[in-house]
Amino acid sequence: MFKFSLKQIAVFDAVASHESVSAAAKKLSMTQSAVSMSLSQLESVLDRPLFNRQGNRLVLSHWGHWLRPRAKRLLQDARQIEFGLHEQHLISGDLTLCSSQTAAKHLVPALISKIDSDFPELRIDLMIENTENVIEALLNYDCDLGIIEGRNTDSRLQQEHWLDDDLVVIASPNHPFAQYKQVTLAQLEQAKWVLREPGAGTRRIFDGAIHGLIDNIKVWKEYESIRVIKSLVANGSYLGCVPYLDVLPELESHQVIVLPTPQLNMQREISFIWRNDSGESPLRECFLSEARRLTRGRSFKPRKDNISA
Prior knowledge:
Belongs to the LysR transcriptional regulatory family. It holds the Pfam family LysR_substrate. The chain is an alpha/beta fold. It folds into three domains: 6-67, Winged helix-like DNA-binding domain superfamily/Winged helix DNA-binding domain (Arc Repressor Mutant, subunit A); 93-164 and 270-295, D-Maltodextrin-Binding Protein, domain 2 (3-Layer(aba) Sandwich), CATH 3.40.190.10; 167-267, D-Maltodextrin-Binding Protein, domain 2. It has helices at 6-18, 21-28, 32-46, 62-85, 101-106, 108-118, 131-139, 185-190, 201-210, 226-235, 244-252, 282-295, and strands at residues 51-54, 57-60, 93-99, 122-128, 145-149, 157-164, 167-171, 192-196, 218-223, 239-243, 257-258, 269-275. The termini are far apart.
């Protein structure tokens, strides 16, 4: 017989998520003393300390980090067994998705709407962060699945390509470069830029594209909001670099133009990532299958009529 219970595992997972006995107790609708006792019993039967106290926080120990993904898989399997035995939807439960801005704005809403229709018992909780923070959220167990821009180099995470979305250099139709058939690297170096903040996937791709080609670019301002960047470009003398998907409305209304910059390769990947140790997940696989279906056969490349002469 097992020496620990699912309830003790659930308590451990809640404390690990919140780094607090009181917050875990609130989430589980238990008293603090009951949570503390359950956690103490689990550490006793496992004969390992699962947390270290740092001030008012309970931080996972080495053994706690080892147990965390296994506890999550165990709880997920238990929920699937319970749903199956009660003849409920087998694709049922909560999936926390952390997405970068472009996908969250242009692709995720339609995807969640389709899942809500076809799998009403699968609830998607959405967080929106830049790529760097999406990766951090996954590593900290704050989400189950991430969507990032560009490549992930952390060996603890698995990555699956979803689609390609080019970055484009944009300017006002009144900008001096607007009439050029080709904008040179020297001209780009002299321009004033408004860009995404360091850590954003868009910024990583842009910095990688100019590396070794442009020594000193004049970054005037950095913003988290692509909307702010587009507005500044449309109404000023700046250049910006944004995802093609994000600038389509402004291109169609002729508020901005795409500059021809053939020397810059700014194709990027939008990908799903998840922890290697998360094991098989019917909820994740359901979400990925619907995402592949949503974008099959669609193109996210700049059209020639959207690029200035």
